[in-house]
Amino acid sequence: MQEQKGSSSSSISTLSIVQMNNVSASYDSKDYVLKNIKMSITRGTNYAIVGQSGSGKSTLLKLINGMMNPSQGKIMVDYKIPNTSDKKFKPFMHKIGYIPQNLGLIKNSTVLENVLIGALPRVSGFNSFFKKFSDLEIDNAKKILKQVGLQGKAERQVYMLSGGEKRRVAIARALVQKPEIILADEIVSELDHVTAREIMDILAEAQATTKLTAIMVHHDLQLALEYADRVAVIKEGEKILEIGVEGDKIVDFQSGNYTQREILEMFSNESEE
Amino acid sequence: MNQKNNLIIGLIIAGVVVMSVNVDADPRDFAEGLPNIGIMLQEITEVDSSLFVTAFWSMLETIEMAFIGTVVGVAISLPLSLLAARNLNNKFVYVPIRALLAAIRTFPSILWAILFVIIVGLGPFAGVLAIIMYTVGFIAKLQYEAIEAIDADPMDAVGAIGVSKLQLIRFVVLPESASHLLSQILYIFDYNIRQTSILGLVGAGGIGFYIINYIKFFEYGKAAVFMLVVLATVLIIEWVSVRVRDKYIVKSQRGMQVKS
Ligand SMILES: Nc1ncnc2c1ncn2[C@@H]1O[C@H](COP(=O)(O)OP(=O)(O)OP(=O)(O)O)[C@@H](O)[C@H]1O
Ligand SMILES: [Mg+2]
Fold first, then answer.
1. Strand order in A256-258's β-sheet?
2. The CATH classification of domain B49-252, taken from the options 3.30.1330.100, 1.10.10.10, 1.10.3720.10, 3.30.1330.60
3. pTM, whole model, 2 decimals?
4. In ligand 1, which atom is closest to the CA atom of A62?
5. Which is more confidently placed, B73 or A125?
């Protein structure tokens, strides 16, 4: 059993929310995009995934939310096999806030409408057809908009927002789901450092108050190490490291100990390739 | 290669000449007949001005027929297009619906009008039914193509939440395709007014009924008055729909171009 930062000494059943055993995945059955991934993500942690472009990070997220299925190996998410076309998995889909690389917002709808989409699993078909939400849901959505720093922007059309504001909308939509997991694909990569940290802080704050697990793909290893309990480094579809900060050192939980400098150099060499 | 192109072009030209002889299309007839326009224009000035009132009312009937046909046709085609979209359904649903729509599209509106005159008798109702059929066949196809073209990202992101298909349609599909749907509806309304103007030729109501009758009795001036009213109406509708398009559609499409 690994011991992880941030996890309380609770029973087995709350320990690992995502479990991957030797998972391989491919899009067109020829080449594996992901190879032999082993991964165990503890409930409530902030887990980061970094790696070069094309290394398979987005694919990894799609495996976790069940949009894709592995060609080999087994994934368990909250002790269920994730599969978006499986009715049995549907209740848990409501609990996964997925923020794809280009956010997937409805550009011609308002901020509030976009955010309320996260509440749809709790709304009847009839009411949702008329876009009718209870006062409770609307209050909650507005509270979350405030939490992400979008107060006063509820009625704005999404296409009018800045890049950073759009990311806040996507986070708010995920938070309105009352999620157990948030999967966020490079949502702060294109932002300046200040805004990126503001957005990471919003998520960290949400994690502090709920048992939320955040699995985030990052571009910047420095930022990932700063916010995440664990950072998985993916290279050409393989998980080559799983690191975390302990004191002033960076530890690889997969194979041994490294100093901070060595790892950062290793990684920056990779990104320059 | 060039040689071959020349040969093809030569064959096409030869084809046009031969076929023109076959269908009796003689440019000289056109040149000789041109002065008839002058006679017709002169006849217009001799027409009793009260005829314009009749023309106006029959144009109004035509617009009403086109309006009803467009609204009902669009109301029918929207659910059909949702069922025909490949990104929302499996093939057991979309294949039969597409086949049905293709079958509907094989008839031009004038043939539908003839069919409905046989079924419900002479008059505007037959014309309205014909316009509905034409609108369904045509608009449902344009709409399912617009629906299939919407961005996959919001579909994936919202689909991954596990919402129902109706919720997905209401919150993603409709907002994302609304501007296309609206511009198609404007287009078909415009087009339906022109179509409805000729359905009177087969007795299915509208202004075409007058036009064909005056022509039968060689009252070209009177026929021309009605044709002028059609022309003016189409121009006005065109102008209005350009304004609507600019105001609502262009704006929101600009919004859609702002990629996140
Ligand atoms: N829909 C798809 N069909 C076929 N191949 C795909 C598809 N999506 C991704 N791939 C391929 O899978 C590999 C991994 O893609 P993925 O999107 O997971 O990379 P990534 O690490 O997220 O890259 P980036 O940092 O650029 O977003 C790439 O080689 C890509 O070409
Ligand atoms: Mg990616």
1. A96-99, A181-185, A213-218, A46-51, A230-235, A238-246, A249-252, A256-258
2. 1.10.3720.10
3. 0.81
4. 18
5. B73
